[in-house]
Structure formats: C-alpha cells, structure tokens
Amino acid sequence: MESAVARSAARARIALATYNPGEEPSADRDLPVLAGALEEAGAEVGVRYWDDPEVDWAGFDLVVIRSTWDYSWRAAEFVAWAGRCGQVTRLANPVGVVRWNADKRYIGDLAEAGVPVVPTRYVAPGDPVELPDDREFVVKPTAGAGARYAARYTPEERETAVRHLARMHAEGLTAMVQPYVKNIDAGGERALQFFGGRLLHASRKGAVLEPGTSYDEDKVAHPRLEPWEPTPAELSVAERALAAVPDAGEVLYARVDLVDGDDGEPCVMELELIEPNLFLWLHPESVPAVAEAIVTAAL
Question: Tens digits of per-residue pLDDT, 26-46?
C-alpha cells in the first residue's frame, strides 16, 4: 500500500542546492542518486546552484543545502543568500543554524555547554601569536571546509606556522590553533551522520593532515573512508553535541566528526550542519531514509 508520505510527495517541490563546478564534473557523487530517490517518491526536484541569481527559490516548498562546497571561500555571501532564501521558503538547515555553524568558533559554544571537544584557541588578525612549543599542532581558519588552509606543524616549524597565520590574517580570516590529536593516526576520525533526528549511518576515515603538507596544498578530504559502527560513547557525545546546537529542533541533517582525545575518550572535532558529505555511495541502504526525511520536511 502506498504510504501517506509517498502520496503527499507529489505536491512537494524540493530544491537541492549545490555548487557550480564549472567545466569539471561535480564532486557530489550522491546528488543524482538523491535527486532520483526524491523523484521516485513523487516529489518535483530541482538541482540548483546556490549562487545562481536566476533561481526563484520561492518556487520551492523546501530548499535543502546539499553540496555548496565552495561556500567557505565566500562565507558572508553564502550566509546572506541563506537569509534571503529562508525569507521566501523553508530552508534546511535553517539560516540561524547555518549562521552559527559557518564560523567554527561554535566549538567554543560546545565546550561551554560541557561537550567534550578538541581544545581550541582562536587567533584573530591583530591578536598576539602563541603556539604550542611541546607538541604538534594544527592551524586552520574558522571559516573553511575540506581542510582548506589547514596544516599540521611541529614546534620546530613555528616560523612556517607564523607565516601561515600571517597569510590568513592578511585575508581577514580568524585562525584556530589546536593540538594535533595523535590518536587520529591510529583510530582515525569517525563521522556520525544524522538525518531527521536519527542516526543514519557512520563512517571512519584516516588522518587528513599529513606531516609536511603545506596549508595551501589540496588535501584528500576523506582518505581511506570505510563504514563504521559507532560505540555507545561516540553516540552519546554526538547526541550531546547536537543537543547544544541553537534551535536544535530545526536541524534536519547533521554530521558529527569525532576523534579520540588524549584520554582515549571521543571528543568533537567538527560539527557539520551546512553541507556535509552524506557518503550515500558508501551507505546505499540509507538513501530511502534520507529521501523520506526530506519529503516529510517539505510537506
């Protein structure tokens, strides 16, 4: 028997917002699969570039930010677009969540809420530069994705790290300085994906930042990705992080990236609430659940 969701989906007009890849093929392997699943559910689906001025976003019942993977280079422009879009239709995730998550200073908010996180210090343009002198550390911008402008340093590489900071500050970027969590090398980074308020699936990947890799080199964002069964401790930390999000009840999708801290316990590396890679190609069994959650949100 056809479900109520499927019957109602015929009235749903859904936009999947992505980036313009130009002459290159899109890096979002999941996009055509997801669009096809939504169309099979009876929805009217449009894949649109977020920065296309010709798109009438008001013509959709729901706009899902899917793979706007160039937004971190133009964060202010992107957040302004999200604000305009959210005024004329429903946006997932909503603009308040987007605005909060677009700046990684949210990690400080999670820490204040008692969520275990990787210790983080922020260095804005003009701030004094203080770098660890007793362990490896990471420098990256508060507005970034895919390890853009991120690098791993030893204390002996301080001068290179200072030049890295100066480059970011010259572009008006605020930097994050974090200890390099050595357990990543052994246990990797775990990504717990939530959709519609429920755990969808989880994955594990290897270390992204290899020693000696320059901050301005392209990195493999998800090396050695594989399915993962999250532990109870990992699930607990992820749920605590999501509960600390402003307007948490409005969040349609989320990815919580975890690593094991120096104490061996999971802590939050990042919280992806804007355009997380869903890894549906690795977890094809999750496609129906994602499509149903999106259709339900559009009704």
Answer: 999 999 999 999 999 999 999
pLDDT at 1: 38
- The tokens describing 24, both together, are 């290159």
CA–CA separation, 129 and 67 (whole Å) = 34
Pairing mode, if any, of strands 253-260 and 226-227? unpaired
**Angle at CA of residue 75, ends 70 and 79, nearest 5°:** 110
What is the mean predicted confidence (pLDDT) over 73-85? 94
Q: What pLDDT does residue 247 have?
A: 85
CA distance 171 to 160: 17
The full 3-state SS of the chain, as one line of letters, equals CCCHHHHHHCCCEEEEEECCCCCCCCCCCCHHHHHHHHHHCCCEEEEEECCCCCCCHHHCCEEEEEECCCHHHHHHHHHHHHHHHHHHCEEECCHHHHHHHCCCCHHHHHHHCCCCECCCEEECCCCCCCCCCCCCEEEEECCCCCCCCCEEECHHHHHHHHHHHHHHHHCCCCEEEEECCCHHHHHCEEEEEEECCEEEEEEEECCCCCCCCCCCCCCCCCCCCEECCCCHHHHHHHHHHHHCCCCHHHCCEEEEEEEECCCCCEEEEEEECCCCCCCCCCCHHHHHHHHHHHHHHHC
| pLDDT of res. 4 | 43
pLDDT in tens, 185-242: 888 999 999 998 899 999 999 887 777 667 666 656 777 899 999 999 999 999 999 9
Mean pLDDT value of segment 91-108? 95
**Assigned token pair, 225:** 């990705």
Q: How many CB atoms lie within 10 A of CB 76?
A: 10
